[in-house]
Structures
1.
Amino acid sequence: MRPLIYSMNPSLDGYIAGRDGSFDWSEPDEELHRFHNEQTAQLGAHLLGRRLYETMVYWETADQDPEISDYTREFALIWQRLPKVVFSSTLREVEGENTRLATGDLASEVARLRAEPGEGAIAVGGAGLAAACAKLDLIDEYRLFVNPVIVGGGTPLFPALDEQLALELMETRTFGSRVVYLRYRRVRTTDVST
C-alpha cells in the first residue's frame, strides 16, 4: 500500500504562510530545489486543495519560459508528468494533462489511490486538505522543510486535533540555506509490538 505524505515548508514558528498570505520566505535556492525535484520525481500521485492547485498551475507551462533555470524547468517537467487530484467545491475544470478533479470524498480517494498498482508515495498539499487528512489519520509521513524565519502568525502548518499523533524521526538534513529537513513517520498502535 502506497503511503500518504505531507510535505511542507513551514517557518520556525509553524506557519506555512504569513498573516498577509505571503510565503516568499520559503522559496528554495538551487540546492533545495534540486532536492524537491528528486522527491517529487519519486511520487506516484499528488492531492491538492484548490488554493495550492491555483498556485501550482503555473508549473503546467513553466517549461516554456526561456528565462527559467535548468532546475526549475526540470521541476516543471516532473510536475507535468505527475498524476494530480484536485479537491474543490468551486472548480468545475482543471488544467494539466495529468490533473483531475476528485470524484469521491477524501478518504475514498486516498483509499482508491493507495490500492492502484504502481509505485511512489501519494503526497498531499494545501493546508486545508492536509488538515482534513490529519484529522482522518490518513498521513503516514510528515516531511518538513523548516525555514529559519519567525513570521509571527498566519496559516498554521498543523490543524487543531482531538488527540496527539505519535511520530518517529526518520531523517534530518540541513541545507546551505539553513533550511532543516525533518522526515517523520506516523507511529500507530498497530506499529508497536506488545
2.
Amino acid sequence: MHAIIVAVSAVLLTLWPAGIGAQCDQCKGDFNGNGAVTIDEIIVSVNNALNNCPAPGPRFTDNGDGTITDTKTGLQWEKKDSKDAEEPPEPIVCPGPPTCANPHDADNQYTWSAGGSSPDGSAFTDFLAQLNGGSGFAGHKDWRLPTVVELANLVDYERANPAIDPAFSVPCTPTCTVTTCSCTVRDFYWANTAGVDLPESGSWTVEFNRGFVELFDPTLPHYVRAVRGGS
C-alpha cells in the first residue's frame, strides 16, 4: 500500500500547480524541512495536488528582491519603501522630481486619469512606466495595477494599522529600501478597475485601515502598489 502511495504521489507532485511561489521550490512534501518525507507528508502532498492547493506554510513569501509572492493566488506584489511620517510634507503627488524618482516610495500618490475616464493618469504614465522601463523591476516588465478584487484580497480584517499581512508592514523609515522594509499606508490604493455604470465618475480603490472598497474621482491622487501575474 505504501509503495502505491509513493508511486502515485511522485506522479501527482510533478503536476503540482505552477505559480504558487517559493513554498513549492523546496523539497516537495518535506513540510518540516528535515530533509526526509514521511508517509503523512506524502498524503498531504497528494491531497494538495488533487485539490490545487498550495503547500502548507505562510501565505506571503518575501522573495528578497523587493517583491512578495502570494502562494494562494500566485500573484507577485511590489513592496513599498521609504515611508515618512504620516504628517506633511508627505505624501507627494506624482509626477514631480526628485521624490517621484523612486516609484517604490510608499508616500507617493498618483492619479488614475489625467482628466476623464481613460487610464492615462500618472499611475500609468509615471509609476508603471518606471517599473516597466529599462530592464524592468525585479527582472520583470509586466507590472500593472491590481484589479479591485486582487487588491481587496490583501486586506486582513483581523489586523489594523494597517489591515494587511505583516509581510507588507515591516517597520519603515525614510531611508529604508524594498529589500530592507515593507510599507503600507493606512489609506486608499488605486485598483485598475473603473466603475462599470459610470466610469467617468469614479474608479475603484481599496483602503488599508478599515478595509473599505470605494469609488473615487479618477483625477484625485491616491497610493499605488503594482502586481504581476494572474489576469
3.
Amino acid sequence: MTWYPLEPVDSGFFDAAPVRHRFVVDVPVPPAELWKSLSSDASVSAWGQSVKAVTWTSPRPFGVGTTRDVTLALGAMTVRERFIRWDEGSGYAFCAVASNRPGLRRFAEDYVIEASGGGARLLWTVALEPAGALSRATPALTPLVRLVFGRLVADGKRYFARR
C-alpha cells in the first residue's frame, strides 16, 4: 500500500483548522462503558457501517504515541493515526500521520467523555486541512465531511441505544 504523509498537528489545530466539525453525542450508558468501547480492539468500527476496520498497531497499554490504522467504509480510505493525548477513562486525541489516498495536509480528531444525566456525553471534534486541488474545494467539502462523520454519530447513538 502506498502511504501519503500528513503534517503533524498540536492541540491548537482543533480551533484553527480550515474545516472543523464539533459533535455532541449523548448516549444512555455510563461514561466508563463509552470509554471501554472507544478504547476496545474494534473501537468505533463496532458502532456500524461507517468505519470498516480499526487495527491497533501498538501494544497495550495505550497512551500518547499509540498508533492504529482506521479504514473507512466509503472510498476504501485508510488513515494511519498517532495519539497525541490519552486521558485514561475520559478521552483522547489523535492526528493522522499518513493516508493511503492523497488529498489531506492535516487531519485530527478529539474525543472528550463527560457524565450527562443518566448516561454519557461525547464531545467530538473533527479537524482537517485539505491539500492540493482539494484545498480549493474546501467550501464544498465542508458539508460532505459533516455528512460522513454525522453518519458515525448516528451509528454510535443506535449502537448504544441497543446496549
